[in-house]
Amino acid sequence: MKVRFKKRRQNTNLIFGIFWFVLGILYLVFTDNNTFWIGYVHLVSGALFMIQNFYDSRHQYLHIENGVIQKNIFYGFSNKINLDEVYEINGTKSNYILKSEARKLSIDPSLIDEQSLIKLFQILRQVDLPSERNHFSKYKPELE
Hints:
- By secondary structure, the chain is α+β, with helices and mostly antiparallel strands.
- The protein has 3 helices and 7 strands; from the N terminus they run βααββββββα.
- The protein is elongated.
- Keywords: Membrane, Transmembrane, Transmembrane helix.
């Protein structure tokens, strides 16, 4: 299962990418002074935003398969945690933290699409932990 990014995040990355790319082209075309390198910085920034948008569209935020949650990060390594190894799930409105002996996975719910967030709640609520160690066991089944 893929836990999707909000469309707003993806659209924002695309808009910023186009903006910086166009700004870089305009700067290179209309500037003759010794600061032409700034135009290249804008072009690279725009390209990175657009590549980030493409990567996010293709891979999304989280993959949950065979009891493993994998967080996809473009500018770094993917972070994985096995749900069977999780001994505690903490949560606040702005952050969910899954802890195992070897790893800690932080999930930002503000980046997640509403439908995907409900599915993520269901999966995290089903993790076999005592209720005092699973933040999601407090949620009522009406969320489904």
